[in-house]
Design goal:
Length: 450
């Protein structure tokens, strides 16, 4: 425990201060709702807050959470355990802000608004003497300021760690791995162009050709390119090219004959330019090590936070959901105990390869820990995630694991699925997927729960 945390525990929740907090506890309890209402009225009017919160999110979840935090901070802590717990609470708030990536300027604004409401309520209250008010106000000020310091400390630690991890994810993509993936994406991109031109020649293009943003290669560029390319100007240019191509496609779809030939040339040029830039990214990538778990060849869990943070922000910005699958190998301990750890490793390796091969190029597969895996499905609702899970279950049931002495094993998996609900803290979605996984286990395993 560092100096700030020790100071917080030792100086604010003393016996004398706890008596004062107890005295004003009814007023604090009655004022938390007003604090939350006023705070979010101001915050929702600020354009800077719009990427992080919405009216629905505020009413359904955030107001209650803010009220709870105010009450936790400004009520007595009689035991050493309670004082340690409130420090952990403040640090947890900072960690949540890290995951949401909310600017600390908004958090500081929140504290000023909360103080303003509390000051006004205290001044107007006839239930307390002026001398008690004069004693309580400095304590309230110090508690809120010290709490903010703990939140900021935790936020900065988490923010720096996320930045380092995101950078490491980029730099640890091997040149060979990235080149293969980019060549596949380029092939899909050029293949789409060729098929579109051919269909247009015969005046029979499918409507799916006209929405470039829903093509697999475009989804990969949108969701994965930022994590394999640190050169943001290049990725932004490729994204801009896709947007420009979409504009030309819309013009063609709207039967603009005068614009058609020029539009086709522009689409072709932009596609070729994007392909060239993708090749430049592959060529510039320097091989250092690996971002993958050596046994399953899935992404290591330590890279989960920056990726989920990015996907959560994109989902809120575009109002498109993503889903998470939490997967566990059934009876894995039994496999290790009966057949040995070498057999267990072979099961893990085969499941990892199967999951990786079963997913789209836009999806992320992580080894979450032990025999658990986490799958991130961008732009996928609960219904489509369930369909993907059912296919995955069937593939695993058909899988045969060969172990020593010529023996063979059949394994099954259990899956829990949760859809991102718009709350900026993605840990809630992970927790819900984990809860659904537990339900699958409880219901007999080898299945999926949503």
């Amino acid at each position: 425990m560092n100096t700030l945390q020790q100071f917080y525990i030792g100086n604010f929740y003393t016996d004398e201060n706890n008596q004062l907090l107890s005295l004003f506890s009814p007023l604090i309890t009655d004022t938390t709702a007003e604090c939350a209402d006023h705070f979010y009225d101001v915050l929702l009017s600020d354009p800077k807050s719009q990427p992080y919160i919405s009216n629905e999110l505020v009413e359904v979840k955030l107001k209650a959470e803010l009220q709870k935090w105010i009450l936790q901070t400004l009520t007595p802590k009689m035991t050493p355990e309670a004082r340690v717990e409130i420090v952990q609470t403040q640090r947890h708030v900072g960690a949540v802000h890290t995951r949401v990536d909310v600017p600390m300027s908004l958090v500081n604004c929140a504290m000023n608004i909360i103080k303003q409401v509390l000051y006004q309520t205290l001044s107007a209250s006839p239930d307390y003497s002026d001398s008690d008010k004069l004693r309580f106000i400095p304590l309230m000020d110090q508690l809120l300021d010290a709490s903010l310091s703990l939140i900021n400390e935790s936020y900065m630690e988490g923010h720096l760690q996320n930045e380092r991890t995101a950078q490491e994810f980029r730099s640890h993509s091997t040149a060979q791995e990235l080149a293969i993936e980019i060549e596949r994406i380029k092939g899909d991109f050029y293949g789409w162009l060729s098929q579109f031109m051919g269909a247009l020649l015969f005046e029979n293009p499918s409507s799916t050709y006209f929405d470039i943003h829903q093509q697999d290669f475009a989804l990969w560029i949108r969701h994965k390119l930022n994590f394999v390319c640190a050169e943001s100007s290049t990725t932004q240019k490729i994204q801009a090219n896709l947007t420009a191509i979409q504009s030309e496609l819309t013009a063609i779809k709207n039967n603009d004959p005068e614009h058609r030939n020029q539009a086709l040339k522009t689409i072709s040029d932009l596609t070729k330019e994007s392909g060239w830039m993708l090749s430049q990214i592959a060529n510039a990538n320097i091989e250092t090590s690996t971002r993958e778990d050596s046994l399953t060849f899935l992404i290591e869990r330590r890279f989960l936070d920056p990726i989920l943070q990015n996907e959560s922000q994109m989902a809120m910005r575009t109002e498109t959901p993503f889903s998470l699958m939490m997967i566990d190998i059934d009876d894995f301990k039994h496999i290790n105990d009966i057949h040995g750890h070498q057999a267990g490793d072979e099961v893990l390796s085969m499941i990892g390869r199967l999951l990786k091969n079963a997913l789209r190029v836009t999806d992320y597969a992580f080894r979450y820990g032990g025999e658990e895996f986490l799958i991130l499905l961008p732009e996928t609702n609960l219904e489509n995630a369930q369909k993907a899970a059912v296919k995955m279950l069937d593939k695993v049931r058909k899988m045969i694991v060969s172990i020593r002495n010529g023996r063979q094993l059949k394994v099954t998996i259990s899956i829990g699925i949760a859809e991102f609900d718009g709350h900026p803290d993605y840990e809630r979605t992970i927790a819900l997927a984990d809860e659904k996984l537990y339900q699958t286990k409880h219901n007999g395993k080898d299945g999926v729960t949503i």
